[in-house]
Amino acid sequence: xxxxxxxxxxxxxxxxxxxxxxxxxxxxxxxxxxxxxxxxxxxxxxxxxxxxxxxxxxxxxxxxxxxxxxxxxxxxxxxxxxxxxxxxxxxxxxxxxxxxxxxxxxxxxxxxxxxxxxxxxxxxxxxxxxxxxxxxxxxxxxxxxxxxxxxxxxxxxxxxxxxxxxxxxxxxxxxxxxxxxxxxxxxxxxxxxxxxxxxxxxxxxxxxxxxxxxxxxxxxxxxxxxxxxxxxxxxxxxxxxxxxxxxxxxxxxxxxxxxxxxxxxxxxxxxxxxxxxxxxxxxxxxxxxxxxxxxxxxxxxxxxxxxxxxxxxxxxxxx
Length: 319
Fold this sequence. Notes:
Number of domains: 1
CATH superfamily: Phosphatidylinositol (PI) phosphodiesterase
Order of helices and strands: HHEHEEHEHEHEHEHEHEHH
CATH class: Alpha Beta
Largest sheet: 8 strands, parallel, barrel
Distance between the termini: 38 Å
CATH architecture: Alpha-Beta Barrel
Helix content: 25-40%
Shape: globular
Number of strands: 9
CATH topology: TIM Barrel
Radius of gyration: 19 Å
Number of helices: 11
């Protein structure tokens, strides 16, 4: 792991001291989100093209759980959006009676008051309580994908990560039924999987792992429009030359800064990576466990890049 410079460690401590007030001050307020991601005046590819080079976007890993907020909880998604103009990554699993739900693990113990496998009838899951990141039980229950899609329509951009027994054919049907195909990002783990997703959801953006020039060549051959692709470049060191090639191809780059979901406050790493990403390292979207803290850091580095007016202008269809 890259070791953060001393200035970065100091900055991390300063950010830590402000996170609670930023998060709870915004996330618990009634009203509208920081940015309402209403794509009625533009398209998702056009929005990313408009933001290119003007702001580093944030993606909230597993919805951005913090403190008493559970991962993949609907209240967490709402709280994140009220605190940070973030893309919301969610995990989609399937029950034994074919109900699509938001859930990451194959077992229930870590994030609920249940035990055993999640692959069981929905009636056995619907009343379980979700645990917050602080391990305390909450009033949240496991959300249905259908209710989250309905909640997000005209409000949020979701990244869909397939887990467990869920199949893209089922997820695609749910997304189409909700009218959300142009407003979500599907996460693929290979170019072959991306091609399958594109055949089911031809108007949906897809996050595809691109770790080399050969991957980029294979992507070009996959018959997926490049303006519908996000390049996932992992969580290790930043490859500036590859990122430059992706930028030249019109493909936004998404990079991860998370080591352990159980320890989301790895801010020295985030400070170091964000600061470097913000200096022409070719990253367009940063996927993080701590969206509020990273957003505060971005705001301190370049307030103009975190202006909600910029987001709104791009959502309104500005070039």
